Amino acid sequence: MPYLIEWTADATVLALKLTGVPVYREGNNFAIPSGQWSVIDACSGIRYLVASLMAGALFAYLMYESVWRRTAFIAASVVVPIVANWLRAYLIVMVGHLSSNTLAAGIDHLVYGWVFFGIVLGAMFWVGAAFRQDGARQVSRAGPPNEATRSTGRAPILGAALAAAFASVPWPLFSAALTATAADAAARELPPVDGANGWRRVADGHAFEWQPNFAGPRASLRQVFERDGERVAVYVAYYAVQIDGAELVSSRNGLTTAAESKWREVSSTRVTVQGGDGSLPARVATIVGARGRFDVLWWYWVGEVVTTSESLATARIAWSRLTRQPDDAAAVFLFTEPSERADGERTLRRFAADMSGAIAHALAAARDRARR
């Protein structure tokens, strides 16, 4: 889903620029002269994609006999809703822009989206029907079917029905298994991170006003460390028994929010930090606001895996749920305020190299404590 959201934002902003609408973009949020917009989960088009794929697979099975035609139509059922969602997002923004946000600014834009999707889906089926392979007409030319032909014709339908029936049986059991632990969810307790390699804990004192916007963690931790006059803040958002609104990977989570005007993310890149525990993949970003500027270095911790990829983090969390293993995961943020005597990113890299092992130890301790 993160890729669908990013692609939708890319396509919408590009279309706005091509049609002469000034756009300022920050991540998946963008502003135009008439207002601000944000591409969230509901705008990703995942619902359109799933609905189109299911309907397209059924249509291909009923209308075509050759494997390549069925494959081609199913492929179209994937591509068409994605592109259509880009067009839908652009049209919604333009309707809101041209109507001074009196239209398509609330729940009505979701209704417009489904109406538009229905039209696109109908058009796709209409085009697909022009290439149908009419098996009934071919059978009539060959003469009346005998009993063997009838049995052969019924076999694929019976097989598909039995396969669908058997496939549907395990899902309620899987659902119960995946949600059974939700009632047992309890707040996790994160032990404090111990200082290492000369870094010592100091009083927070809210020296750093900024904090990442990650909603619904089971536990969170904020500490400040100092060495040789350099200060680095650590913030950890820890998730477990993840549900909607309390999950590590979500379009609602980010360094800043669309509604927040105090802080803006102006740059972001992926880096690799070399430390005593090996290489550490991370992201580096810069946050600016009226009250200062912060450099941020952060990563996801999923079990024993460290990554910057939302897709990999989501896949590992899903696998943990399917195998009935704990889905504990966390987002780890290091941030500092650059000064004339210290480069912020360089300070964060040194801190990550020195302290990533201690942070991982604290996260593992929280996970293991919950298992007892």
Break the fold down into its secondary structure elements and pairings.
Elements (H helix, E strand, L loop, with lengths): L1 H17 L5 E3 L2 E4 L2 E4 L7 H18 L3 H32 L9 H22 L5 H7 L5 H22 L1 H10 L20 E3 L16 E9 L2 E10 L23 E13 L2 E12 L2 E11 L2 E3 L2 H13 L6 E8 L7 H28 L1
Antiparallel strand pairs: 1-2, 2-3, 4-5, 5-6, 6-11, 7-8, 8-9, 9-10, 9-11
Helix pairs in contact: 1-3, 2-3, 2-4, 3-4
Distance between the termini: 34 Å
The quaternary state of the protein chains shown equals single chain
**What portion of the residues fall into strands of 2 or more residues?**
15-25%
> On the 0-100 scale, what is the average pLDDT?
78
Q: How many structurally independent domains?
A: 2
Q: Helical stretch count?
A: 9
**Major β-sheet profile:** 8 strands, antiparallel
Q: Assign the structural class, choosing from mainly alpha, mainly beta, alpha/beta, alpha+beta, or little secondary structure.
A: alpha+beta
Model regions low in confidence, pLDDT < 50 over at least 5 residues: 149-178, 180-184
Order of helices and strands: HEEEHHHHHHEEEEEEEHEH
Question: What's the alpha carbon Rg, rounded to whole Å?
Answer: 26 Å
The coarse overall form would be globular
- State the helical fraction: 40-55%
How many E strands?
11
